[in-house]
Amino acid sequence: MGLFNVSQPTVFLLTGIPGLESTQKWLAGPLCMMYTVALGGNTMILMAVWGESSLHAPMYYFLSMLSFSDVAMSLATLPTVFRTFCLNSRAILFDACLAQMFLIHSFSMMESGILLAMSFDRYVAICNPLRYASVLTNQVIAGMGLAVTARSFTTLFPFPFLIKRLPICRSNVLSHSYCLHPDMMKLACADITVNSIYGMFVLLSTYGLDLLSIIFSYILILRSVLAIASREERLKALNTCVSHICAVLIFYIPMIGVSTVHRFGKHAPRYVHVLMSNMYLFVPPVLNPIIYSAKTKEIRRSIVRMFHRLCM
Questions:
Q1: Which of 22, 45, 48, 83 has a CB 3.0–4.6 Å from the CB of 302, allowing a cystine?
Q2: Which is it for the CA torsion 258, 115, 293, 143, positive or negative?
Q3: Could you tell me the maximum CA-CA distance found in the chain, to the nearest angstrom?
């Protein structure tokens, strides 16, 4: 039957940046730098939290979860992005594409859940500091981590099967250098209403609910901070939230953008789709370790001490 038939393709063909196929090897350097920052920076944070007893606290446990999800996301996209841009090898097996799609969406949803857990941590620390240690025990933190992971995998478990049931005969060329559910389902020559409705349900019931909960937690935090008499104390309390607010913005803004473009920007140029999707996947893993290293002096000091021990 060859590589393609009316039921489903044996392989999908990945795409780099439209219009730059002949020169996209020049992007190998910047991409390698981004992956180095994402993998190296987040790994250093994990090692710092693991090896420094002073960082064995709820805030840093949640930060290590965020770094783990960023590392996992980067590793999920690295093989196909590297092959597409550096080796000009575009083919990916159908089942491998399904697996990558599931992992990308799962780790992305895990990051959303971790950001929600981190907002709860900031809420308790600022609004009810006397109960902080009793509320956020190690058992509670572990339970929250397991709940975030279980939600991601159980909610997204149907995605590969929803794609596999579709006859794909329009094309086998994807729009990106990795596999995403909206991109794959658009290649079907059958009704994709179930995929679209379930995808929207997942988006609103997880990401949407997480974002609303984070906003609500910051409304409560802001109300509590404004009740503090001292201006210096108010600024000190808000300063502990800056890193988390930045992490929320760099995660949700690209995610909302890519979802909007996929669903309502059908006539937008292809490079817009590619740009938004790349921002959604690459920006948070690259910027999160930079932001937390720059804004959290305890993390910064721990990393410096770690390098000092390695150099001795």
A1: 48
A2: negative
A3: 75
Long-range contacts at 32-41 (CB < 8 A, ≥ 24 apart):
34/282, 34/286, 35/74, 35/78, 37/286, 37/289, 37/290, 38/70, 38/71, 38/74, 38/282, 38/285, 38/286, 38/289, 39/71, 39/74, 39/75, 41/286, 41/288, 41/289, 41/290, 41/293
Please give the Cα distance from 113 to 105 (Å, whole number): 12
Tell me what pLDDT residue 312 has.
67
Confidence of residue 2 (pLDDT cuts 50, 70, 90): very low
What confidence score (pLDDT) does residue 8 get?
75
SS3 state of residue 268? coil
92-117 pLDDT tens trace: 999 999 999 999 999 999 999 999 99
| pLDDT in the model for residue 305 | 84
Q: Is 75 exposed, middle or buried (0-12, 13-18, 19+ CB in 10 A)?
A: middle
Q: What is the mean pLDDT of the chain?
A: 88
* Residue 179 burial (10 A CB sphere; 0-12, 13-18, 19+): buried
List the chain domain ranges. 11-311
pTM above 0.90, yes or no: yes
Residue 188 has what DSSP assignment?
B
